[in-house]
Design a protein that fits this description.
Layout (H helix, E strand, L loop, with lengths): L1 H20 L10 H22 L6 H8 L5 E6 L3 E2 L8 E8 L7 E4 L3 E11 L2 E10 L7 E5 L6 E5 L1 E2 L2 H8 L4 H27 L7 E3 L2 E3 L3 H27 L40 E4 L5 E3 L4 E7 L17 H12 L2 E5 L5 E5 L1 E2 L10 E2 L4 E5 L13 E7 L10 H6 L9 H11 L3
Parallel strand pairs: 2-9
Antiparallel strand pairs: 1-3, 3-6, 4-7, 5-6, 7-8, 10-11, 12-20, 13-19, 14-15, 14-18, 15-16, 16-20, 17-19
Helix pairs in contact: 1-6, 5-6
């Protein structure tokens, strides 16, 4: 592995230094070389003048230091721009650092929690190359890697991107099943191609010697290509395995959201029932189920889902936000959202969104984009405050919004526009289907 890393970054260094080493034949006085010499001469003369004018103010030792070359430190290459923090093969990167002096200790930190491993150090062309492996231990947004020398007089940094598992999974759950199947086939094919390329490269004889020619390293490129191919192969396999997990869970059955309390068979408590008391501010239709249980009865997740919305600390005054005149369909949906008051939305592994409403004491450990498991405690049942403040009706409102899979990055209103499960079915059909869906 160390040889692979060494060869990879020597090749990267070669690319950087070759840009500097290009020699062009121009007339001396019109060449870049003449311009550079002229600029350096002017700079040197300026320093001398400055020292003469300030001779009494500057100690002699400091005056000589000013004329010395400034120490530099720079990140010259980075293996992975996108960090998948949730996987041990893709939660790291390898950086090469170039310094103008031999530094005993290169300081590295980040805005994220990291571990760093020293891999290699080499002197070349009066410069020093350091190679480190940087591993990100937990999910972190917009990771930055900072490096500086021991005296903190010079530094450099790079900005990376990160992708959390829940975000990666959420994007997949907005794609049609056929698209995911085709994507998995492509990933598996690419992984097979990478395996063949790696085998072909390993059959070739790779030179392990390196030598300095015109300020650059000349190396065989097979080993460094193997590093990149191995990483791409692991990434293809990782994405393919996640898609497989989604496809395997496409046809799932839900757990009961309120343990030991079954769905009601009352007509007014199932989808498609009429709600005449609110038909002037909404569509007047019940979009889900009401599960009746005592006040503060715990509510749990019906499966392994992603938390995509938490609406907490709702108050009676929030009902004043309900719009009552010249309503559009979106206005009716937003009014219905207010009537749900405290609520949690979960993205399911069957692509849909489940809504839990009329809640209190939402678990403080519950966070947006957190993945929760089946039967995880989330919240308690509270009053609905519908149709009036004194209406002591204790129940969980539970509904399922069907994902049309026509775009990614849906906002809250987009999800409200989706059809609710079993819209337009009659009561007999719904009661039969809910038995199978919830294992009742």
């Amino acid at each position: 592995m160390q040889n692979l890393v060494k060869s990879y970054f020597e090749r990267k260094t070669n690319e950087q230094l070759e840009k500097v080493s290009e020699i062009k034949t121009y007339s001396f006085f019109g060449s870049k070389k003449f311009k550079i010499i002229s600029m350096l001469l002017i700079f040197f003369i300026s320093i001398v003048i400055f020292l003469i004018l300030n001779f009494e103010k500057i100690p002699l030792s400091n005056a000589f230091n000013i004329l010395k070359e400034k120490e530099t430190i720079k990140i010259i290459s980075n293996l992975n721009q996108l960090i998948y923090t949730w996987n041990e093969w893709t939660n790291n990167t390898i950086i090469s650092i170039n310094t103008s002096k031999n530094i005993d200790y290169v300081q590295i930190n980040s805005n994220c929690t990291i571990t760093k491993s020293f891999l290699w150090k080499k002197e070349f062309a009066e410069n020093f190359l350091y190679i480190f492996k940087i591993t990100f231990k937990w999910d972190c947004k917009n990771p930055i890697i900072n490096v500086w020398n021991k005296t903190n007089t010079t530094n450099d940094s790079i900005k990376l991107k990160s992708l959390e598992y829940s975000n990666f999974l959420n994007n997949l759950l907005d794609l049609p099943k056929e698209t995911l199947i085709n994507e998995k086939k492509k990933l598996d094919q690419e992984s097979t191609k990478m395996t063949k390329k790696i085998k072909d490269l390993n059959k070739k004889e790779c030179s392990k010697t390196s030598y300095l020619v015109y300020w650059s390293w000349t190396l065989s490129s097979q080993v460094s290509q193997t590093i990149e191919l191995n990483y791409e192969k692991k990434l293809y396999n990782l994405k393919s395995s996640v898609i497989k997990s989604v496809l395997d869970n496409a046809e799932i059955k839900y757990k009961l959201p309120v343990p030991w309390y079954r769905f009601s068979t009352r007509k007014s408590a199932i989808p498609n029932s009429a709600k005449d008391y609110r038909k002037d501010i909404t569509d007047g239709i019940h979009h889900g189920w009401d599960i009746f249980a005592p006040l503060n009865t715990p509510v749990v997740a019906t499966g392994k889902w992603i938390v995509i919305r938490i609406q907490n600390w709702f108050s009676w005054q929030d009902f004043d936000k309900i719009k009552r005149w010249s309503l559009t369909e979106d206005d009716e949906l937003l009014n219905l959202d207010i009537l749900r008051w405290n609520q949690v939305w979960l993205k399911t592994l069957d692509w849909n969104v489940t809504i839990y409403a009329h809640l209190s004491k939402i678990n403080p450990n519950l966070k947006i984009w957190k993945i929760i498991n089946s039967w995880d405690y989330i919240w308690n049942i509270w009053v609905s405050w519908v149709p009036d403040k004194d209406f002591a009706d204790f129940h969980l409102h539970f509904e399922i919004q069907l994902n049309p899979k026509n775009k990614q990055q849906n906002n809250n209103l987009d999800i409200m526009r989706w059809n609710f499960l079993w819209k337009w079915l009659d009561m007999a059909q719904i009661l039969l289907k809910q038995q199978k869906l919830f294992n009742q």
